[in-house]
Structure formats: C-alpha cells, structure tokens
C-alpha cells in the first residue's frame, strides 16, 4: 500500500505545483489583457489611432514562445496604427485570443466561469466590431444620393452578424451568470444588466435602420440617426462588461491559486509521512517489497499514455466502484467524440492530431469538477462521469459548455484550429446503480448527436436503442444491396427556365429493393452513416452517374452536365481532388461536364471547413462546376461566393413555393437572384411545381429550374430515352432564346 500511496502523494504534489504555475500564467495573461482596456476605450471614444506608442510586454519566455512573441508584437503594432475602429478592435481581439490560448485560460478556469473566457476573448469584442461595421455601412449608405443592391444587402448582412454576437452575449449574461455566487458576482451582474439594456436600445434603433434600408431608393431615406445615438452607449457598456469579466476571472483565479497552494502544503505533509513510513518498512522488510508493489501498480494499465487520462478499463472499474458503494442519487455520463479528426490528421499530420487530443484532455480536466472522473476511452472518444448529479439539465448545460470550449479557436503547433465535437449523455434512474449500460446508452446518444451535425448534444432516450437496432438490420441488408448493385442513382432533370431545354440532371441515390420496391434516401442513409457505408455508396453513385453521362453525350448532341452531391468527409480529404479527376477521366468526361454540389453550411466556420474550402477551390481551378446548394438558408458571405468561385447557386424550395402569390417572398427571392447575377453566378431554382412559379422565376432572371413541374427523379433508362426526344412543349414553355 505504501508504494502506491507514495506515488499518489508525489503526483498530487506535482499536479498542484503545475496548477499553481498554470494559474500564475493565467493571471499574468489577464493582466496583459486588462492593459489593453484603456487603449480599446480610446479607439471607441475617439475612433482615432493612438498618437503616442504604448508599450505592452510580450517577452515572458515562460508563457510565450519566440514565434508567439513575434506574432503578438506584429498584431499589437497593427492595433496601434489602424485607422478603422472596427479593424483596430479586430486586432485587439486577435491579441486577446493569442494570450488566452498561450496561457490555456479555458483549461484553468472553473466550470462556472468558463463562459467568461469566451466573453473576454471573442463575443464581447465581436459585438463592438460588428456594431461598428453595421454603423459604418449605414452611415455610408445614408450619405449616398442613390441606394444600390449592394447597400441593400450589406447592411442586413452586417446587422445579422451583429445580432448573432450580441444575442450570444445576452444569453450568456442572462442565463449562465446565474451560476455565479451573488456575493462575488454582484458587480458583474449589474454590468451585464446595463449591457443588455443598451443592446436592446440599439437593436430597436437598428431595426429602424434595416427596415428603412429595405424600402429606400435614396440615402436620405435611410433612418440612421437613432442607431448613431444608441451605438456609443452600447460600445461603452460592452467594453465595461468586458473589463468586469476580466476582473472577475482574475479574482476567481486568485481564489483558485490560494486553494491550490494549501493543497500543495497538505500533499507535502502526506508525502513526508508516507516517505518516513516507507523508509522504516524498507529497513524492516527490504527494498524488494516496495519495488515489487510499484511494478504491480504500473502493470495495472489503467491510463492512456498519450493524454495521461484514465482509459476505458479505469472508467469501468470506477463505475463498478460507484455501484458497490451504493451512494444513492443518479449517475451521469457524458461522451465526447471529436468530428472530422481524420481530415485534421491528413491536413496537418499526426503530431498535430496528438496535440489536439492532449488539448481536449486539458479542456475536460479544466472544466470538470473535483468529484468528476475524466477518461479517454477511444481514438477520438472521451468520457466524463459525474456522481450524484442534481438534474439532467445541469449535465446538459455542462455538455454545451464543453462543446463550446472544445470548439474555440486554438493555436496548435502553429495552426489555428477549431475542434468539432458531438456529445451524448446518459443518466441512471435515481438510486439505481450504474453499470455497462450507462456507457452503451451514452454511445447511442452520441450517434444521434452525430446525425444532427456539429456541436450537437443529445440526451439518451429509449427510442434511440430501438433506432439503433432497426438501423443495424437495415445495414445488413444494405451491405448485400451494395454487393448486388441495388444502390443506384436516379436523375432529376434540370431545364432552362425560359426555353425548357434539357441542360443537366442531379444524381440522387435510390435503393431498388426487389421486395420493398424503391427506397428513398431518408429510409436508409442514417443506417448507412452509422455503419460506415457512405463512402462506398457515394463512390458507386458517382461512377454510375458519370458513365450514364458519357452514354447520354454519345447519343445526343445537347450540352449536358451531371450534378453530384459530394460528401463533406470526402471533400475534407486532401486526396479527393486527384480521386475525382481520375474518376472523370476514367468515365471519358471532362471536369466542366461535372457539377460538384456543396451545402451552404460549409461557409459558416472558416476554420472547421478549411480543408473543404481548399478542396473546392482546387476543384474549381481544375474546371469542375461548383454549385452552392440550399442558397439563402445558411450564413454564407458574399466574399465566400467569390473565394470559392461558385458557378451556380441553387435556391431552396422554401423560397419558391407559392412565389407567384406572395409579394413578401417575391422581394426576398428576387434579391437573392439579383445578388447572384450581380456576381456573374448562375441561378437554379429547386422544387418548381407550377407553371406560375416557373413564369415568375423566368421573368425575374432565374436561369435553370428543376422540380415536379418538369419531372420527378427517374431511372437512367428513362432519362436516356427522353434525352433525344425532349419536348419543352410538354410543359408549355415559350420558345425563346436561352436567358444565358
């Protein structure tokens, strides 16, 4: 017993000393960030560069590497010299982020205060940036004699970006601040209330600005004065809350440091007693007994060598111990799985992937409580076990905090990265002993979270087990279907909105089941995703669709291209460009005859989607047509449309249905079409079902349509048969020159 006790005491002392050192670095980092406050306030109040250069010390080698110091100094020099207020605050935000990442601030703060780190290094400064940009756009437009489409689009886009950041800050301060103790956080809560009041006033004034911009034809018609009057109060209250958050974090870290120092003294005392006892026993019984005990301890194999966390075996042993102790109360388990990790390794190398796993471990340990048990149980899988949980809501809120902390931008071996995660939660019934089922249920909840996309959190429900069992049966049949060639593409024709000429088709996957008939994607793709069959399905559909296109072009003189839905996982792989080029060449096509369809969601997070964007840009350079699917339903920026060299946007059915009868919908859809065409981007409307919808789209500049008015998705044989005798008169289109 003494050898493990001695080892435990030694590790306790080392960890406590490391904690003290980490907290000291955090306090130093917060002091540096606090020094930026007066400089930022100067920019907010005067909107002028600083006349006298200010000094900010970045040279602490215990905190910053030489490269980090150089980047900080460069960003600081840019901050001082910027002529634009919003650009200066962007530089300040970059400095703050680099400091918080270097000191690992989110890893050393308590669970209750981890949201404050996001307020400090991102959200509140973003509110200042976006509010400044929104007002600059509004003021510029108000000074113009006439208002163009760019003005009408840029102000709402900027307003949307401001609202997203401002509402996030309001959410954190109104809900998460309730977790902070009233005696310590009274001042901070008052500052938060002042911010929310200023935000509400500015948003009311901003709404008038946006509405007047929508209807204006001249700059004098834009109502900008109320927003100009409200913005300064918002900027000042936001910065004051930012400074108050820094002060609260520093106070909290000081308390943490004091408590940790006490634990060092306790650990040293215990360690000394253990050492004395071990020394005495060594004299009596010989050193070999202690050595043998220590060897047995290392052979137990209860830890993960990469992160230093306990492993799955240790987690199971801990769950068994909780069950045997019969402590009462419910036990909860959070499973965290990192997404797109394979792409990260491909792009940056295994050493960056290993560093990302260690960083994730640090985040979990930093956010977990004293009685929580954190483990790494698989390649990208982590677990957090909590005993005697108060409520499911409490555990779900912690899971949301984890996804946000993991997803924050970090510098990992010189790369700015955001880690994407999915989280599943399982909880025992009150007073029920936990067991292996707790782990199984957390895994099922994580599967559901993965199906919902990035940053999703799912609490286990019994129906998830039923869905898993059903999907397992579907997956067995799907494997047979793949081998027998029953997974095939069907094709939905795409025609000119004005002439009705066939110009292409979108390949859509179908499962032709001899027993159950034609099965649509929603009935089997979730099972395929869970079973890992999506790559095989996508590849099979691509190969068949390209071969069909070759046959169609050989028998028909019409210009035709095939639209392919390419998965994000494939686009994340750096090898995807060479793979698609090889497939096109093998089929006897050229890249210009193939359209690669991407979802607008890839535009949202420039860091998580970086490998996808790089692949798309490379595919465009090689001649593939790039189509942005579901245009208008996401958050893509105008610059993203340009940077990705998008050739065509597809307007979602929700913006088309009944458009001939809805003036409000007409305004929005017309703006989308005009925006795309002003950037020389073609427009395709999906889900067109009536002749009236088609006529409105053709009259308002839409190039291509698809939908039930033209045809449902049809098998290859039907498309090939119709291609040679395609008759636009079937849909009663006027024979006019193609709009293009």
Specify the helix fraction band: 55-70%
Instruction: Give the strand order, joined by hyphens, for the main sheet.
Output: 8-9-11-12-13-14-15-16
**Assembly type:** single chain
What percentage of amino acids are in beta strands? 5-15%
Label the overall shape.
globular
Mean pLDDT: 82
Q: Largest sheet, described in full?
A: 8 strands, mixed, barrel
Number of strands: 16
Structural class: alpha/beta
Tally of helical segments: 24
Work out the radius of gyration: 30 Å
User: Uncertain runs with pLDDT below 50, 5 residues or more?
Assistant: 281-300, 727-732, 734-740
Please report the distance between the alpha carbons of the first and last residues: 83 Å
């Amino acid at each position: 017993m003494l050898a493990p006790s001695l080892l435990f005491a030694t590790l306790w002392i080392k960890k406590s000393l490391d904690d003290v050192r980490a907290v000291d670095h955090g306090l130093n980092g917060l002091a540096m960030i606090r020094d930026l406050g007066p400089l930022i306030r100067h920019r907010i109040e005067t909107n002028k560069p600083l006349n006298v250069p200010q000094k900010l010390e970045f040279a602490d080698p215990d905190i910053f590497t030489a490269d980090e110091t150089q980047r900080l100094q460069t960003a600081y020099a840019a901050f001082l010299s910027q002529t634009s207020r919003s650009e200066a605050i962007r530089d300040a935000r970059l400095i703050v982020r680099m400091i918080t990442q270097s000191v690992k601030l989110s890893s050393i703060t308590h669970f209750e205060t981890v949201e404050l780190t996001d307020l400090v290094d991102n959200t509140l400064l973003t509110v200042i940036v976006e509010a400044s940009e929104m007002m600059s756009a509004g003021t510029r437009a108000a000074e113009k004699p006439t208002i163009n489409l760019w003005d009408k689009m840029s102000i709402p886009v900027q307003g949307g970006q401001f609202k997203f950041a401002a509402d996030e800050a309001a959410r954190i301060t109104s809900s998460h601040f309730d977790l902070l103790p009233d005696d310590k956080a009274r001042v901070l809560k008052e500052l938060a209330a002042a911010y929310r009041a200023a935000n509400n006033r500015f948003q009311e004034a901003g709404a008038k600005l946006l509405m007047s911009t929508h209807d204006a034809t001249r700059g004098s018609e834009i109502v900008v004065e109320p927003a100009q009057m409200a913005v300064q109060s918002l900027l000042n209250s936001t910065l004051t809350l930012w400074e108050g958050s820094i002060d609260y974090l520093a106070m909290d870290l000081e308390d943490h440091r004091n408590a940790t120092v006490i634990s060092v003294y306790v650990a040293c005392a215990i360690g000394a007693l253990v050492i004395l006892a071990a020394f005495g026993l060594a004299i009596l019984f010989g050193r070999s007994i202690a050595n043998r005990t220590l060897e047995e301890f290392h052979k137990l194999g209860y830890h993960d060598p990469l992160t230093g966390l306990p492993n799955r075996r240790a987690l199971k042993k801990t769950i068994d111990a909780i069950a045997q102790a019969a402590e009462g109360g419910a036990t909860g388990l959070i499973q965290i799985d990192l997404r797109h990790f394979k792409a990260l390794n491909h792009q940056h190398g295994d050493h960056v992937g290993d560093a990302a796993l260690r960083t994730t471990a640090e985040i979990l340990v930093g956010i977990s409580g004293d009685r929580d048990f954190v483990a790494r149980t698989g390649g990208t899988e982590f677990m957090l076990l909590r005993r005697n949980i108060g409520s499911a809501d409490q555990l779900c809120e912690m899971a949301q905090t984890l996804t946000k902390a993991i997803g924050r931008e970090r510098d990992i071996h010189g790369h700015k990265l955001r880690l994407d995660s999915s989280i599943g939660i399982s909880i025992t019934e009150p007073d029920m002993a936990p067991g292996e089922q707790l782990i199984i249920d957390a895994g099922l909840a994580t599967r559901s979270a993965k199906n919902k996309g990035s940053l999703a959190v799912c609490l286990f429900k019994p129906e998830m087990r039923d869905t898993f069992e059903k999907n397992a049966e579907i997956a067995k049949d799907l494997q047979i279907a793949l081998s027998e060639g029953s997974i095939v593409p069907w094709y939905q024709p795409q025609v000119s909105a004005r002439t009705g000429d066939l110009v292409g088709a979108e390949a859509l996957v179908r499962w032709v089941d001899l027993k159950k008939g034609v099965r649509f994607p929603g009935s089997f793709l979730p099972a395929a995703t869970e079973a890992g069959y999506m790559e095989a399905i996508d590849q099979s559909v691509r190969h068949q669709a390209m071969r069909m296109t070759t046959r169609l072009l050989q028998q028909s003189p019409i210009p035709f291209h095939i639209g392919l839905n390419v998965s994000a996982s494939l686009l994340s792989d750096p090898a995807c460009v060479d793979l698609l080029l090889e497939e096109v060449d093998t089929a006897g096509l050229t890249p210009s005859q193939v359209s690669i369809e991407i979802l607008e969601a890839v535009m949202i997070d420039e860091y998580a989607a970086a490998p996808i964007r790089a692949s798309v840009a490379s595919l465009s350079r090689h001649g593939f047509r790039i189509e942005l699917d579901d245009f208008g339903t996401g958050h893509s920026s105008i610059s993203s449309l340009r940077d990705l060299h998008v050739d065509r946007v597809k307007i979602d059915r929700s913006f088309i249905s009944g458009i001939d009868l809805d003036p409000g919908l007409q305004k929005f859809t017309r703006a989308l079409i005009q925006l795309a065409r002003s950037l020389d981007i073609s427009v395709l409307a999906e889900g067109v079902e009536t002749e009236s919808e088609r006529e409105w789209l053709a009259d308002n500049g839409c190039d291509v349509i698809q939908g039930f008015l033209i045809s449902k998705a049809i098998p290859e044989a039907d498309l090939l048969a119709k291609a040679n005798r395609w008759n636009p008169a079937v849909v009663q289109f006027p024979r006019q020159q193609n709009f293009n």
